[in-house]
Amino acid sequence: MRDTAKPQDDKLLKRGIIGSTIAAVCCFTPLLVIAFTGVGLSALIGGLDYFLFPMLFASLGVVAFALYLRSGKIGISPKAIIAILALAFSAGLIWLEFKYALRISLAALSLVALYGFYLNWAKNRNAA
C-alpha cells in the first residue's frame, strides 16, 4: 500500500513529527524555562508561548500535509484548510490567553489523527 509514498514525503512527515514533538515538549514542560534561565535569557520566558504554540500547530499542519502526500493525493489539496486551521488554533489560543492550551492542542492533534485515518480509509477504498 505504500507504493505511492516518495522518500521526500516520508522526510516531510518525519520533520513534521519532530517539530511537533519539540514544540510540545517545550510548551508543556519547563525545559526552555530552565535553559533560558541558565544562560541568562530569563526576560524572554514570558513570550515563549506566543512562539511555541503556533509552531506546534504549524508542525501538525506539516504532518497533515505529509499524510495527504503519502496517501497518493486523495481528494482536493488541503493546503488552504491546514493553513486556516493552524492560524485559527493559534489565534484562538492567544485570544483565550492560553487558558485551555492542553485541550486545544489535543483537539488539533486529534484532527490530524482523524485526517490520517480518513486518508488511509479512502486509500484502501480506492484500492479495492
Task: Walk me through the structure.
The chain is mostly helical and 128 residues long. The protein has one domain (2-127). Helices cover 76% and strands 0% of the residues. The chain has helices spanning 7-28, 31-38, 48-70, 79-95, 101-127. Helix 1 (7-28) runs antiparallel to helix 3 (48-70), helix 3 runs antiparallel to helix 4 (79-95) and helix 3 packs parallel to helix 5. The longest helix is centred in the last third of the chain and has 27 residues, at 101-127. The N and C termini lie close together (11 Å). The model has no long low-confidence stretch (mean pLDDT 89).
- The N- to C-terminal Cα distance equals 11 Å
Radius of gyration: 17 Å
| Beta-strand residue fraction | under 5%
Task: Give the uncertain stretches in residue-range form.
Answer: none
Element order: H for helix, E for strand: HHHHH
The tally of domains stands at 1
Outline, from the CA principal axes? elongated
Helix content: over 70%
- Secondary-structure-based class equals mainly alpha
- Number of DSSP strands? 0
Give the overall pLDDT as a whole number: 89
